[in-house]
């Protein structure tokens, strides 16, 4: 895999495709290894936007990156939002503090007409959002920052985990990885034109 050790110039980004097929697994390992190498050095801040359609393994990739970083002795900060399933049905979304391992239920299904008319099918717990924002506000000089995910609520409405937007813009980290849905990629690159892009393809959620 070709690596890019220096930050991308404004407006420039790279699509580093990723596949779960056995012949492509080396690229998965190489991408994580390259991120960990950069995070361990006194290097300039670098931002990687992780994107792909729903269900292709973005959260799994973030969790694996965090696991390997901790195993190598790197301090990891940030939040990940794993889906919660019961009998094969998605029943919620949690918010995980990667530093402490503390987990809270962020979202539950929204019932009735409000979901139908608003197009929003999840009710977000404001207390859990405040908890997540508090975690992000306390992160300073982070070696490896992981945010899964920032969505339309943050990027378009300036609500939700807004401290994540401020933290990414500050570049007060060595390496940051933020999950963004493909439909919001243009918005994200307008906000962070120095970012690189990593597109996961074909990695299924466990």
Explain how this protein is built:
The protein is of the alpha/beta class and 206 residues long. The protein has a domain at 24-81 and 96-101 and 140-199: P-loop containing nucleotide triphosphate hydrolases (Rossmann fold). It is 33% helix and 25% strand. The chain contains seven helices and nine strands, in the order H-E-H-E-E-E-E-H-E-H-E-H-H-E-H-E. Strands 1, 2, 3, 4, 5, 6, 7, 8 and 9 form a nine-stranded mixed β-sheet that branches. Strand 4 (89-97) and strand 5 (103-109) form a beta hairpin. The radius of gyration is 17 Å and the shape is globular. Mean pLDDT is 80; it is low at 1-26 and 113-119.
Please provide a brief summary of the model:
This protein has helices at residues 25-39, 58-71, 113-118, 126-137, 152-155, 162-170, 185-191; strands spanning 46-51, 76-80, 83-86, 89-97, 103-109, 122-124, 142-148, 173-179, 196-199. It has 206 residues and is an alpha/beta fold.
């Amino acid at each position: 895999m070709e690596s890019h050790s220096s930050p991308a110039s404004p407006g420039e980004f790279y699509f580093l495709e990723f596949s779960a097929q056995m012949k492509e697994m080396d690229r998965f390992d190489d991408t994580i290894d390259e991120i960990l190498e950069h995070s361990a050095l006194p290097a300039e801040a670098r931002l990687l936007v992780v994107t792909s359609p729903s269900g292709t393994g973005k959260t799994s990739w973030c969790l694996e990156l965090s696991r390997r970083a901790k195993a190598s002795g790197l301090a990891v900060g940030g939040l990940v939002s794993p889906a919660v399933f019961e009998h094969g049905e998605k029943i919620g979304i949690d918010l995980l503090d990667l530093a402490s391992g503390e987990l809270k239920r962020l979202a539950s299904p929204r019932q009735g007409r409000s979901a139908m008319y608003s197009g929003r099918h999840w009710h977000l717990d404001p207390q859990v959002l405040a908890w997540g924002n508090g975690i992000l506000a306390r992160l300073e000089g982070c070696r490896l920052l992981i945010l899964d995910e920032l969505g339309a609520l943050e990027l378009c409405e300036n609500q939700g985990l807004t401290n994540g937007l401020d933290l990414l813009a500050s570049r007060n980290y060595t390496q940051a990885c933020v999950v963004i849905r493909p439909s919001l990629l243009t918005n994200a690159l307008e906000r962070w034109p120095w970012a690189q892009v990593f597109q996961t393809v074909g990695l299924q959620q466990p």
